Automatic annotation (TrEMBL):
<feature type="domain" description="AB hydrolase-1">
    <location>
        <begin position="43"/>
        <end position="268"/>
    </location>
</feature>
<dbReference type="InterPro" id="IPR052897">
    <property type="entry name" value="Sec-Metab_Biosynth_Hydrolase"/>
</dbReference>
<keyword id="KW-0732">Signal</keyword>
<dbReference type="Pfam" id="PF12697">
    <property type="entry name" value="Abhydrolase_6"/>
</dbReference>
<dbReference type="InterPro" id="IPR029058">
    <property type="entry name" value="AB_hydrolase_fold"/>
</dbReference>
<feature type="signal peptide">
    <location>
        <begin position="1"/>
        <end position="20"/>
    </location>
</feature>
<dbReference type="InterPro" id="IPR006311">
    <property type="entry name" value="TAT_signal"/>
</dbReference>
<dbReference type="InterPro" id="IPR000073">
    <property type="entry name" value="AB_hydrolase_1"/>
</dbReference>
<protein>
    <submittedName>
        <fullName>Pimeloyl-ACP methyl ester carboxylesterase</fullName>
    </submittedName>
</protein>
<dbReference type="GO" id="GO:0003824">
    <property type="term" value="F:catalytic activity"/>
</dbReference>
C-alpha cells in the first residue's frame, strides 16, 4: 500500500512538474507586448479663392492611405473675418492635435483661425498668404513684381477677374469675383494640365467677395505656432519673392519647388510630403 501511494505521488509530482514546465515554456513563447503608437494628428485642409475643397482630392487620398484623419471644410470666401470665424468654430469640434493647411487665400484664413487654439500644433502654407496684422491679400500680391492676376496695378478689380453682381436677401447688391475661364489654366496651373482639365476647374470655381482680397488680417497664428511653407517657383498669382518674404518672416520650415500656384492639384506628392513633415513633429 505504501509502495502504491509512493508510486502515485511520484507520478502526480512528475506530471505537475511537466505541466508547470509546459506552462512556463508557453509563457516564454508568447509575443512581447508592444505599446501602440500614438494616433496621428488630424489634417485640416483649407482651400483658397477660385478653387474649392475638391482641389485637395489627390492630397487627401495620399494622407488617408498613410492613416491620417483628414477633413477639408469649404471656405466661404466672404471675407477674412467671416471665413476665419467659421473655421475657428469648426476647429473646436476636432479632438486632439491638428495640422492646419492653407493654400493661397486659405493661408490668410488659417493665420487668423488658429490664433489662440491650443490644439493646432502646426501650420502649413502651400503657395499661400501668411499675412501679418493689418496686411491684406491685395497689398501682399503687389509687394513684389511677378503676379499675372492683373496687368493694371491701379485697377479696382484685378484684370484676370470678372465681377458678377447679385442681389442679397436684404435687397442690397453684392459682388462676386470670378477668375476668367480663358486665363484660368495659365494663372493657377501655369499651363501644366490639359485645357479640358483647366476648363473643368474653372467651371467649378468658388468666387470670392472683394472683402476676401481687401480686408485686413488680424493677429497672426504663425507668431506662436510652428509653420512650414511651400514656395512655388512658377506661381503666377503670388510672386515667389512674396512667398519667400512671408516664409522667412514666419520662420517657417521652407521648401521651394518648381510648382504652380495650385500645387495641390499638379504636384500632390510634394504637398503631401510637406504636410507629413509637419505632422511628424506633433506629439
Amino acid at each position: 500500500m505504501l509502495r502504491r501511494r509512493t508510486f502515485r505521488t511520484a507520478v502526480l509530482g512528475a506530471t505537475g512538474v511537466a505541466l508547470a514546465g509546459g506552462v512556463t515554456a508557453f509563457a516564454s513563447a508568447a509575443p512581447a507586448h508592444h505599446t501602440p503608437s500614438a494616433p496621428k494628428p488630424t489634417v485640416v485642409l483649407v482651400n483658397g479663392a477660385w478653387s474649392d475643397a475638391a482641389s485637395w482630392k489627390s492630397v487627401i487620398n495620399r494622407l488617408q492611405t498613410d492613416g491620417y484623419p483628414v477633413v477639408a471644410p469649404p471656405t466661404g470666401l466672404r471675407g477674412v473675418s467671416a471665413d476665419s470665424s467659421y473655421l475657428a468654430s469648426y476647429l473646436k469640434t476636432i479632438q486632439g492635435p491638428v495640422v492646419l493647411v492653407g493654400q493661397s487665400y486659405g493661408g490668410t484664413v488659417i493665420t487668423n483661425a488658429a490664433t489662440g487654439n491650443k490644439n493646432v500644433k502646426a501650420l502649413v502654407y502651400i503657395s499661400a498668404f501668411a499675412p501679418d496684422k493689418g496686411e491684406d491679400v491685395k497689398t501682399l500680391t503687389a509687394k513684389f513684381p511677378g503676379s499675372q492676376i492683373s496687368n493694371d496695378p491701379d485697377a479696382e478689380v484685378p484684370t484676370a477677374l470678372t465681377p458678377v453682381p447679385y442681389t442679397k436677401a436684404d435687397g442690397t447688391t453684392g459682388v462676386d469675383l470670378y477668375a476668367k475661364a480663358d486665363q484660368y489654366r495659365n494663372l493657377f496651373l501655369s499651363n501644366r494640365v490639359s485645357g479640358r482639365t483647366a476648363a473643368e476647374l474653372a467651371a467649378t470655381q468658388s468666387p470670392a467677395a472683394p472683402e476676401a482680397l481687401g480686408e485686413a488680417s488680424g493677429d497672426p497664428a504663425w507668431k506662436t505656432i510652428q509653420s512650414w511653407y511651400l514656395v512655388s517657383k512658377d506661381d503666377h498669382v503670388i510672386p515667389p519673392a512674396t512667398e519667400r518674404f512671408m516664409a522667412k518672416r514666419a520662420h517657417a520650415h521652407t521648401v521651394e519647388a518648381d510648382t504652380p500656384h495650385a500645387a495641390q492639384v499638379t504636384n500632390p506628392g510634394i504637398v503631401t510630403d510637406l504636410i507629413k513633415k509637419a505632422a511628424a513633429t506633433v506629439h
